[in-house]
């Protein structure tokens, strides 16, 4: 099966509060679906990329909801299994007036415990162009998931695919020392690094673009993008370095999912072999569109919506 992108990781039912402010005062919530790798898959699918997702969910109403949602977005869920004996993971969000917030996770006894190295085969990655992995899935069970992600990267590269990584460091899931050590183990398996500036500082001791590029090249990473929020982004590809100001949103209402949207836009442009400046502009634009909408993935745009935002008249062939 031809798939442009495959990602691997957890997904959760997300409960969004009906009011802003401390969660203890929110008395009602709206059910959604979210998760870093899941949001990335949705972002890619909405841009028209053939997208596959590898995961495990509980064989419960929440798991069926997530799988059906993914299927409805056009994501290939062949490698998503529903398992008895495991609850589908949950999280509850707290959203402040300025769009910032916190997330409270309930993901113990995750069904992804049953997703192992033996779950992956060469056929899984046949005719795939890119595998995207994330530090969130690594953090859920580092001793199991780091070897699993290495195995996935090897199989993907053997199939001719590129491997991208977003460190997506969540210090509620592991401490900074463990995060640095474990994610560093993955870097030599990666071709494209999509990192935040704070994550780069944690991993490399610097977020100066030139220094980060030099460190990346020692791991064999040929492409790098650094997300700097309201300060824009920087990227390196094929010997070229570009820094770009942020695309300012009309209003920031929810920052969750912005990085996943950036990643999807960057990967789209990379697979389409666009010039680096255009790739970065698209990624920045999608990030700004996401923060203007409440929800983990509600703001992830369709390709045509991005083109309108970019002011481009021609449609890009899917």
Describe this structure in words.
- This protein is 35% helix and 23% strand.
- The strands form two sheets. A nine-stranded mixed beta sheet has the order 5-4-1-8-9-10-11-12-13, sandwiched between helices. A four-stranded mixed beta sheet has the order 3-2-6-7.
- α1 (36-46) packs across α8 (258-271) and α8 (258-271) packs antiparallel against α9.
- With 318 residues, the chain is α/β, with parallel strands linked by helices.
- It has a single domain (3-11, 35-61, 70-82, 117-310), classed as Ribokinase (UDP-N-acetylmuramoyl-L-alanine:D-glutamate ligase), CATH 3.40.1190.20.
- The protein is built from ten helices and 13 strands.
- A hairpin with a 5-residue loop joins β6 (90-95) and β7.
- The chain has helices at 36-46, 61-72, 135-140, 142-158, 176-186, 197-204, 209-218, 258-271, 276-290, 303-310, and strands spanning 3-8, 12-17, 29-34, 51-58, 80-83, 90-95, 101-106, 128-134, 162-166, 192-196, 223-227, 233-237, 240-244.
- The mean pLDDT is 92.
- The longest helix is centred in the middle third of the chain and has 17 residues, at 142-158.
CATH topology: UDP-N-acetylmuramoyl-L-alanine:D-glutamate ligase
- The shape, in one word, is globular
Order of strands across the main sheet: 5-4-1-8-9-10-11-12-13
Number of helices: 10
Briefly say what this structure is.
With 318 residues, this protein is an alpha/beta fold.
